[in-house]
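subagent[fold] <- orchestrator: predict structure for attached chain, return tokens only, no commentary.
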Amino acid sequence: MTEQTTSGSTWVDLIDPTADELDAALEADVRLVETTREMLLEGVRDNSDRRPFLREESTGDGSSYVVGVLLAPSESDDQDDPIEFHEVDVIITPTQMITVRKTGPRGHTYDCTGTQLFSVRVGDPPGLALWHLVDDIAEGYLDIIERLDERIGDLEDAVEDGQTEHIRLHIARIRRMLLHTRRNVSPLRDATRNVLDDRVELAGQQLFPRDVESRFAQTYDKLLRVTDELDLARDLLAGVRDYHQAEIANEQNAVMKRLTIVASILLLPTFIVGLYGQNLKGAPEFGWAHGYWFSWALIILTTIGQLAYFKRKRWF
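subagent[fold] -> orchestrator:
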């Protein structure tokens, strides 16, 4: 457990806390809803069962707080799924913010120590500390978009270079990355919008004053840009897919053209041999000593004629 304390607030950062560690971090007058407490203590099973959100909760004894789930992206070494989303749960009161970072299935957690130690200053309220965290996550999504654009560009170059063996697999992989990123960034954008609309506040207390809301507005614009870039990346990927399919169609047409030429070249010799081999009375082999060589000459001349015709038509 790490703890960053300021004169106006306390940011307590926990990593996979136990029940005792969580209770020790909470202020004495804060009581959590049981489902929220279970959510904070349970491990990460699968990123698909979590969506980012921020909402106000209150218990029967008048205790209220803001609870949220954030998913921070990062690159991973897994070629099949190179983007990993780290769960960060938050509890915010008027005087305290608690973050619970969870270790993912690959053994990694989101690193927010830089934001905690260097961005949050002495006297910053919890709402401003939350903005620093959300803005850092939004920057992470922008970095992921840049990596996706680079991957799509490399994919397009591979199609142009004729490296089509694994193109379909890479297209499916990038498409899955785009879908997962959009599925997580859209709820985060909505949660940021809820802060701007004053739908995430405590009764009678202000967690997000006007200056903090203006900062959330900047982060909201970043997340809008992320969604726009995701749409653009999806269109670019669709263009690469269509380009790849067109290249495959062109290759198939070239193969069919070559096969057609071969079949056409063999057609006339087959006809001549079939006609010549009928062994009927009056056929060349019965009355002409050079009939065999005449048939060969006819086959060669017709083949040369066909090749010259195909060449003039630029069919090969």
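orchestrator: received. Logging for downstream: Residues 2-249 form a domain with the Methane Monooxygenase Hydroxylase; Chain G, domain 1 fold (CATH 1.20.58.340). The mean pLDDT is 82.
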